[in-house]
Design brief:
The complex is a heterodimer of chains A (171) and B (566). Chain A is 74% helix and 0% strand. Chain A is globular, with a radius of gyration of 22 Å. By secondary structure, chain A is an all-alpha fold. Chain B is of the alpha+beta class and 566 residues long. Chain B contains 20 helices and 20 strands. In chain B, the strands form eight sheets. In chain B, strands 5-4-18-17-16 form a five-stranded antiparallel beta sheet, with helices on both faces. Chain B has a three-stranded antiparallel beta sheet with strand order 3-13-14, covered by helices on one side. A two-stranded antiparallel sheet of chain B has the order 1-2. In chain B, a hairpin with a 5-residue loop joins strand 16 and strand 17. The termini of chain B are far apart. Classes of the chains: A mainly alpha (171), B alpha+beta (566). Chains A and B meet through helix 1, helix 2, helix 3, helix 5 and helix 7 of A and helix 2, helix 9, strand 13, strand 14 and strand 15 of B.
Chain lengths: 171, 566
């Protein structure tokens, strides 16, 4: 009985809401155009984001994957300076799909995640950067510094202290 | 009001039908009918008739292909006529409209006469209403049904099936069907095409080679990008265009030796080294229930004392089972779990040799963690979801989570590289350019029922399975059945070689066949990687197994003598 009485009322309320707006956009800090630009238009300029495709699409004397990565990094940096973290993240992920072996990219991406207050993810990204062999001491210091900040931000004092020791070790 | 277009069933309007399909069940109750009426009123209050009609046309059920329902005129056009909605002629449009009343009853493939009658009825109505002129009407009536012989196939059915499952996990069905979402996927169409072609031709060639007859073998494959966990291509069967059983996701088959890396990784984590010797003699393990598990090597021979490196490279079952028992089953299962193997894996020793079943997708997830340098990233098919009004509503950002120490993973990767150089997958060494650094593992199950290969190079990982749907034996091993597909696909994809470095705490030492450190100028020495501090002791000669007493021990003795200690 109760179900039969309440049912239509609930459904009525639900439908009013549904009618107004079926999908609420999730937390998205960036203007929607950031994604559209990256997905729909930029490949015409920078290729699909895959190193293989880059190699096929461009003659080596025109644009090299390294140059594409550097350009994406630069653009991401500009977006970071404007606080447009989501758009910067997109650029860096594309750069990582082209070159997985640059620890600077991981450091920059980890910094972006910190900017988004995603500290646990930022730490993991920095650790992944550290797992790449043949990086310089400066790069290690930068990555460990990110980890110090992430751990401090999440209240992991002992972890931050251990990370700080790594910073000192490589300085 | 809501009665703007009558339907022929039970006095329902088109809006009623839409409400029922989207929000309610089809149960025949008065309460449902009342709800339907109220919701229809609300829907018509909020949306224009054109919007409701458009939604209805995008959502209406119009046919069935196996387990997949065909909804909407766009998909219907593809399914029945193999073309787009825009490409339909008048008589084809009329058939689609006519089908709504009963897609099964008027199925043009099964009941063409019934379908034609229905189509002509719709054409007659249109002519009556003045939607088409006399000439168009007569021309359309004279046309045959024009239905494509085979149902129009969605491209990449295995990938799309996996995509649908991921989206169903994250979104409500209604939103997916109605909201006009744009889905940006990780699919690499070029790689997908290559994988489909290579798998299909290789399976046929192997059938010919072994005289198995046509269409006996099946296959599945999953191609991923290890750095991100993106799925780039997926094939669910040798006929990659056919939808239906998606073997890449749903064929749960024993994985055999593909599980061995988990045993060796557990051993490396505990401080074992790759040059350590282990007995490959017959082994028997008693289970709690009193049963005895005694695995045998594939060649039914024991190989005496072997290095861990060779035991993995040559896929020795006996040595691996012995190592696993030394390391401890709990530790091996912990590693399996951290590698990202989902599902219900029985906690029995035979799991170490892959007696349990997994799908190619699950194997790809497990190997993803190894190829990703010890970082787990969930396999992913979606890059972003965009809403026509709100823009991007969800992004699937890069996720990484460290599960293993880089040093342990590095050693395991080197051992898996050895598999491709001198082990069961040495075909790679012979057939691919030497500059390619490849690591992987073959898998063959009892009576050769399943042939597997999982491996990675550059930033590409590919898992291949070949076997029979009826689970009957084949003459194939992982090396002869699945590996050629892997090699051929990688040749086509030609991934950029990885700049592979060495972690700071890893050193390479020259060791002889007894796993003892010897000078590098000795014959038959191999360079084996070690974590610093775990290097083997030095031998007195090139061939000797007797190691030189450590200088440190000598000094200890001298100090002990000085201090008067024995």
């Amino acid at each position: 009985m109760v179900e039969k009485t309440v049912g239509p009322i609930l459904i009525l309320s639900f439908m009013v809401l549904v009618g107004c707006q079926t999908i609420q956009p999730e937390q998205e800090q960036e203007p929607e155009t950031d994604f559209d630009v990256a997905i729909r238009h930029e490949p015409e300029v920078f290729g699909t984001g895959d190193a293989e495709s880059e190699r096929d699409s461009f003659k080596p004397d025109v644009v090299l994957p390294d140059q594409v990565v550097k350009q994406l990094q630069k653009e991401a940096l500009e977006l970071q300076s404007q606080g447009r973290w989501g758009a910067a993240e997109l650029k860096l992920e594309r750069a990582l799909r082209i070159d997985t072996q640059q620890s600077e990219l991981y450091e920059q991406l980890a910094t972006v995640r910190m900017g988004q207050s995603r500290f646990v993810e930022a730490e993991q990204i920095a650790l992944k950067g550290l797992s790449i062999p043949s990086q310089t001491s400066e790069q290690k210091v930068a990555l460990w510094q990110v980890i110090v900040q992430c751990r401090s931000a999440t209240g992991d004092i002992a972890g931050a202290r251990a990370a700080r020791k790594e910073v000192e070790k490589w300085q | 009001m809501s009665f703007w277009l009558d339907s022929t069933q039970g006095g329902s309007t088109l809006t009623n039908q839409l409400v029922k399909n989207l929000y309610l069940s089809s149960e025949k109750k008065l309460t449902r009918k009342i709800n339907e009426a109220i919701m229809s009123l609300i829907l018509e209050f909020h949306y224009s008739k054109n919007e409701i009609l458009e939604t209805y046309m995008n959502e209406v059920y119009i046919g069935q292909q196996g387990a997949r329902s065909i909804n909407g005129f766009g998909l219907g056009a593809e399914f029945y006529f193999g073309t787009t909605l825009q490409g339909l002629e008048i008589h084809q449009q009329a058939l689609l409209v006519g089908l709504i009343k009963g897609p099964s009853f008027y199925n043009p493939r099964r009941h063409p006469e019934r379908a034609k009658k229905r189509r002509d009825l719709v054409l007659g109505k249109w002519h009556e209403e003045g939607l088409i002129d006399e000439a168009e009407y007569q021309h359309a009536l004279a046309e045959p049904l024009d239905v494509a012989n085979k149902p129009g196939q969605a491209s990449y059915p295995a990938f799309m099936d996996a995509l649908r499952r991921q989206l169903n996990r994250d979104y409500r069905k209604n939103d997916l069907m109605v909201e006009g979402l744009s889905i940006y996927t990780t699919l690499d169409p070029v790689a997908q095409q290559a994988l489909e072609t290579v798998l299909s031709s290789s399976v046929s060639r192997v059938e010919d080679q072994y005289g198995l007859g046509a269409n006996v073998l099946e296959g599945a494959a999953v191609l991923t990008r290890p750095s991100t966990g993106d799925i780039l291509a997926m094939v669910g069967g040798r006929d990659a265009k056919a939808s239906g059983f998606n073997r890449a996701l749903d064929a749960i088959r024993p994985v055999g030796s593909l599980m061995k890396p988990a045993v060796y990784l557990a051993a490396l984590e505990q401080g074992h080294t790759l040059s350590e010797m282990i007995s490959d003699d017959e082994v028997a393990v008693s289970a709690r229930d009193g049963s005895v598990w005694s695995p045998r090597n594939y060649d039914h021979e024991s190989h005496g004392q072997v290095m861990l490196l060779d035991a993995l490279a040559k896929s020795y079952n006996q040595a691996t089972a012995r190592l696993g028992m030394q390391v401890g089953l709990a530790n091996v299962f912990d590693v399996i779990d951290r590698l990202g193997v989902s599902g219900d894996i029985p906690k029995v020793p035979s799991v170490m040799l892959g007696a349990h079943g997994m799908s190619a997708y699950q194997v790809a997830q497990m190997y993803q963690t190894i190829a990703g340098n010890g970082f787990y990233s969930p396999l992913n098919l979606v890059r972003a979801v965009s809403h026509p009004e709100y823009g991007v509503i969800q992004r699937y950002a890069l996720q990484v989570s460290q599960r293993f120490e880089p040093k342990d993973i590095y050693l395991l990767q080197e051992a898996m590289h050895e598999v491709t150089q001198h082990g069961t997958a040495a075909r790679i060494h012979r057939q691919l350019p030497p500059r390619w650094w490849v690591a992987g593992k073959t898998g063959t199950t009892d009576d050769n029922r399943d042939a597997w290969f999982a491996g990675f190079t550059g930033d590409r990982q590919l898992v291949v399975w070949v076997g029979r749907d009826d689970n009957q034996p084949t003459p194939l091993t992982g090396s002869t059945g699945a590996l050629p597909i892997w090699i051929q696909t990688m040749k086509v994809l030609n991934p950029l070689p990885e700049r592979r470095g060495v972690p700071a705490n890893i050193v390479f030492e020259s060791v002889n066949s007894a796993g003892v450190k010897v000078p590098s100028w000795c014959d038959d020495v191999r360079q084996v990687p070690f974590v610093k501090g775990t290097e083997p002791e030095k031998s007195l000669s090139c061939s000797s197994q007797v190691t030189q007493p450590r200088q440190k021990e000598e000094k200890d003795k001298w100090w002990k003598k000085l201090l008067g200690r024995s």
